[in-house]
Amino acid sequence: MKEINIGLLGCGTVGTGVAKILIENRDLIRSRVGANLNLRRVADIDLKSDRGIRFDDGVFIADAHKVVDDPGIDIIIEMIGGEGVAKDFILRAIDNNKQVVTANKALLANHGNSIFKAAAEKGVDLAFEASVGGCMPIIKSLRESLVGNHVKSMTGILNGTCNYILSRSTDDGSSFEDVLAEAQEKGFAEADTTLDVEGIDTAHKLAILTSLAYGMEINFKDIYIEGISNITPMDIVFAGQFGYRIKLLAISKDTGNAVDARVHPTMIPFDNLLSSVNGVLNAITISGDAVGDVMLYGHGAGMMPTASAVVSDTVDIARNLLSGTSGRVPLLSYQMENIRKIPIIPVDEIFTHYYFRFSAVDRPGVLSKISGILGDLGISIKSVHQKGRKTKGPVPIVMLTHLAKEADVQKALTKITTLDVVKDRPVLIRIEDEDEQD
User: Fold this and answer.
1) Predicted pLDDT at 161
2) What percent of the chain has pLDDT over 70?
3) What are the pLDDT digits (tens) for 105-151?
4) In which band, very low, low, confident or very high, does the pLDDT at 435 lie, cut at 50, 70 and 90?
5) What residues does 10 pair with on adjacent strands?
6) Is-contact 115 93, C-beta < 8 A?
């Protein structure tokens, strides 16, 4: 029986999961592929930690160069992470005419254009399903299942840490800080949560998806990013009173000559299926002109779900090798010569609906001052919730708007902030509601 040799770089959490599947499910994979997928080499700088796996003698080594340069290895799986040595090893593997599998979303978001170009020039496959959505087949859906569709939009929850925090805050009113600490204790969040809670991890994934969906070069730097650290239990409660839940969303829309691509906390109505995706789960809705809406749902991270996606990519490449083909499916869904530079719309130019919360002095005329500034900039108010109280101090005034331009909204909030009756910076949360009519 044909044997395909695999080299694994990095045996951390996900790398260990990949090794476990390849070793423990070897017979299952062989029966489905028609070849033996042999884990020939595993490289990691930590050779002492117990990973619960028994490797054959000589398989587990410290020198990754010996893996990448081994002429007997057909597929390199990169599980190192980061944008330093991982990039170097991937490019070296490509230069050595090896097929590559990676889950490295940050690397692809920031350096993917050059990496994919190198792979295309060498005629090797580079698979990256696990870089977005864990075990959800988002990449395969865009590259293969929806190949006959013009993708009109994508809206997704793509970070389990943020979704866990917002879900817990919604359920019991816990503060951001308390739930974040709990998530770290349970292993749902890293010690340094900046990439997660500030929306950067989600934006890495969105940069990859927009390229696949619209045939554009990967463009991470122009995506608008806003995290969830300023979302309070008070705003979650008010959102619920208006019929919305708050989620950190990756939003992408084809506007014709440009793409709307942004990541930020968003209020979505209760009847939107994404509003009921809770805990550490991920989900994404893809809208195509032929299929309508398609929703994928599942674990977006974790050892075994992510490892499952990595092994799926490895099997796809193994099947290509068995049939003597490569490049059967274009790396970025479109043929390389058809990938263009498509601009991302600056956030100031988007039109959407808004939630505002002002902390204002409780006295007559305050509401008219605020609404006057909004009206002067063409921002129409849909509804107002003003909660007065007998005790001294500022009280919340909450407003929902009709469709408005972001630039006008920001100008209005800057002016409102200068009012002596308004305390603190106003809170703004964007609303995505397809049923809204203006």
Assistant:
1) 93
2) 98
3) 999 999 999 999 999 999 999 999 999 999 999 999 999 999 999 99
4) low
5) none
6) no
Give SS3 for 130: helix
Distance CA 70, CA 169 (A): 50
CATH class of the structural domain 347-431: alpha beta
Q: Which pLDDT value is given to residue 187?
A: 76
Hey, is 229 helix, strand or coil?
coil
Joined tokens for residue 382 = 């849909």
- From the list 163, 164, 206, 187, the residue with the least C-alpha distance to 13 is 187
DSSP state of 133: S
Q: Which residues are bridge partners to 283 per DSSP?
A: 157, 297
What is the pLDDT, as a whole number, of residue 392?
67
pLDDT exceeds 90 at position 353: yes
Residue ranges of domains in the chain = 3-137+303-338, 146-299, 347-431
CA 370/CA 55 separation, integer angstroms: 68
Evaluate whether the domain defined by 146-299 bears CATH number 3.40.50.620: no
Instruction: Give the sign of the dihedral formed by CA 426, CA 430, CA 433, CA 438.
Output: positive
Tokens of 324: 């003597």
- Look-up of token digits 């969040």: 189
Report whether CATH 3.30.450.20 matches the domain 3-137+303-338.
no
How many alpha carbons lie under 13 Å from residue 231 in its C-beta half-sphere? Answer: 35
Which residues belong to the active site? Answer: 205
At 153, the amino acid letter reads S
Q: Where are the beta strands (DSSP E) in 121-234?
A: 126-127, 151-157, 224-225
> How confident is the prediction for the chain on average, in pLDDT?
94
* Burial of 217: CB neighbours in 10 Å, binned 0-12, 13-18, 19+: middle
pLDDT score at 389: 57
